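User: I'm curious what two different proteins look like when written out as structure tokens. Can you demonstrate?

Assistant: Sure. I'll show them one after the other, since each token string lines up with its own sequence. Here's the first protein:
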Amino acid sequence: MDKIDFTDQYFMKQAYQEAKEALKKDEVPVGAVIVSEGTIISRAHNLTETLNDVTAHAEMLAITSASEHLGGKYLNNCALYVTLEPCTMCAGALNWSQIGKIVFGAADEKRGYKKLSPSPLHPKTEVIGGVMEKECSELVKQFFARKR
């Protein structure tokens, strides 16, 4: 039996699948998964239009689901994989959750936390950007091209 190699690439592919689900619902295609000890404990995608809720970003929904799964508000032993760089709202929530690691696909030059609020994350949070950047970026570009 083949051993699955649980790399950042593997988990980003899972988040990418969530982003494709958002696209099917005509939502901005952002997907997220949260991983604890090599296991995905939450999956989410943007639902702001579906729920008519500006806070229903993939990261926010994933944080809530992961916290519920773990029975606590801190995610310091978890990793978030998200297809687009978190916005400042999501970065703030990730700070409060004390998430251990954030891996994102595409940078968000207009609304990403790094541009608007360079250090809103918990000091111990490890951040890795650019995993599957091309694929994640293309999905968002396709969505907005269809809207124009």
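Here's a second, unrelated protein for contrast:
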Amino acid sequence: MTRLYLLIVLVIANADLSAQFYLNASNQLPDNGAKQQSMDIRAADLDQDGDLDVVLANEFQANTILLNDGNGNFTTAIGALPTRIQDSEDVAIADFNGDGWLDLVFCSEDDISLGEQNVHEYYVGSTEGTFTTGPDELADSEANAVITADINQDGWPDLLFGNNGPTTLLLNDQSGSFVQNEDRIPAINRTTQDLLLVDLTGDGHADLIEGNENGNRYFVNDGSGFFTDETAERFPGISNLETRKVVAGDVDGDNDLDLFLCNVAFQPGRNPQNRLFINDGAGNFTDATSTQLPLDLDLTLDAIIIDLDADNDLDIFVANIAGVPQKVYRNDGAGSFEFATTGIFEQNYVREGLGLFAADFNGDGLTDIYLCDRKNPSTNFKDLLLLRAPLTSVVEQESTKRITVFPNPIQDTFYVRGIFNNTAATAQLSDVSGRTLAELNLQRQSDHTYQASWPAQFKSGVYFMKIANTSVKVIKQ
């Protein structure tokens, strides 16, 4: 059956949100696969059935694959991976050998069972999401992070490991085997917890950020996959940070990537306050924490930057440990944040949150959230699967004064949701200067939902609609 999903965008700025945008769907996770010592999560279509499966990197337990039935119901793929008990910390997913199936690399930190070796796990994918041991062992290191990207631009995915020591680069030999390269990234000893590879300078080339326990680093890509350390010039040095995760997003709407640092205080003297760094558009950063982030001294191990409340700006969801709730920082539209957790979720979730991933898990076109809840002997919690609520139901919980236009950006036919007294209503369309362009007829389709057609003479751009004394910003693609 074909299903039609419409994305409804709430466009009332600075409104007091009371609806729940995400609902707990952890009952759709299996008991035998989502109660692990999970350190991190990635999602990909491992069995090529058109939906996203979950891969969990587990500490001193066998790593886990959860297969999706297409509706966000997961089962543990027993026997899909070789059983190895290691201190897995992170996982990278790509087709490393070019056979059309996704492969997996888990990085390992401390492997007691293997003596002094810190052997990373490399598994080659095959039919129906099953995996066998890769062609050779990867270069040994004590790693907390692994990411994959085509560093040398030969069309093959390479590997970067964030280590207790210098970050190491393993170049793919174009067959799925790897050779360590020591020329492209400066060798600087740090205890790295996270790696982020994104274009920060706006030149189209991915730069590298290390999230470290002892001084974060910023390496700029020269365009050919060689990196220089430009931390001192571009990234404010804060000596007392113990960073566990670095995430990027355009939080202030100026078309460049800003940085959010998740911090803890496991080491004496460290400041656990999370940090926000604003990009000037050329890859130079300013610490805006004191003016744009709320004071928060909880221990944060991960975060995602997504539009949680459907108001067209990016919010931040942080994963905390040590008996405190997971939290939402809500964006005011200009890159300043306030706490808004219970306005987004149906309750406060107290979890040992170590890993986060945002994706559409149930195929409804909306972004869901998966949180790894590290197994705690005092609880019986599974991992947390938060499904984005159908936004029509969210709107119904909101004040009757709210108006929504969807989809937004607008297509030739669009819909307005609100409570009017008439079976038909009108909307005044204006440009950004306030000049009235047209009056649009809204035809009632059902309770509180109206349909309209976009005037063909008005092309792509930003417009405003005035409906029932409420001005709504819309975008026409």
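A detail about the second structure: The chain has a mean pLDDT of 87.
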